[in-house]
């Protein structure tokens, strides 16, 4: 696992975009896993800029999105389908047949989920999966629970997620209560994972995720710690609690090892 701490959201987006471009340029038919939410928005802007400057070509790139709300029209401004077209696909040369979005209005979601995983497998899996994290530790819409599902599935949204995402809807009662999401097995089979975490509000959850070097189904993102090619890209605000705790641990270890040299590390 690699942890990169960048100055701010802008730097995170620049680093993320350059890593994505580097990977796309390495391989002819590239399979990119995409996330939505506020966090990757600037990364998508950087990708569009790079495409316009001829630094990356999406002609042979296939995409699979992580998740979608259930029963939301695909042209609804809050659908992830709309988000992806508006914020990325409409501005690059990706072929429409290479875009894979989870259907929000299928009559048979179970079948949609099975077909989605099958299609990902037929394309030899995802080469690079971009992820964000919910304030409750969710990945895609894999919510904290006593068990986590591996395959693409339907899920009830957690109360915290409803509260967090209701800002986009007229009110919490008008937002979908369920979603369809890639499962953690599908995500973990990606060859490389790039987790983007920005802003002060994400500091508690990422610190919790990295605190004890353990997997906890209450923090679905902790599953990612098992991945052998995981990069966590944080800005200084998101990294603040994690860094403070890391320094305190180093301090404790130092004082245990050298009890005669009591030393205070600056944890400010
Ligand atoms: C959303 C999405 C996730 C996203 C997360 C964080 O609900 N389902 O894929 O990563 O929550 O969103 P944001 O980046 O807006 O904080």
Nearest-integer average pLDDT: 94
Shape: globular
Percent helix, as a range, is 25-40%
Number of helices: 8
The quaternary structure here is: single chain
Text of the CATH class: Alpha Beta
For the biggest sheet, the summary is: 7 strands, parallel
Using the CA coordinates, give the radius of gyration. Answer: 19 Å
User: What small ligands are held by the chains?
Assistant: 2-amino-2-deoxy-6-O-phosphono-alpha-D-glucopyranose
The topology string of helices and strands comes to: EHEHEEHEHEEHEHEHEH
Short key terms for the protein model shown above:
single chain, 268 residues, alpha/beta, Rossmann fold, seven-stranded parallel beta sheet, 35% helix, globular
Describe this entry's structure for a reader.
Helix 7 packs parallel to helix 8 (236-257). The two termini are 26 Å apart. The chain has 268 residues and is α/β, with parallel strands linked by helices. The protein has helices spanning 9-26, 41-52, 80-87, 109-122, 159-165, 184-188, 203-211, 236-257; strands at residues 2-6, 30-34, 61-65, 67-69, 99-100, 128-131, 153-156, 178-181, 192-197, 230-235. The model has no long low-confidence stretch (mean pLDDT 94). A seven-stranded parallel β-sheet has the order 1-10-9-6-2-3-5. Strands 4-8-7 form a three-stranded antiparallel β-sheet. The radius of gyration is 19 Å and the shape is globular. It has a single domain (2-267), classed as Rossmann fold (3-Layer(aba) Sandwich). It is built from eight helices and ten strands.
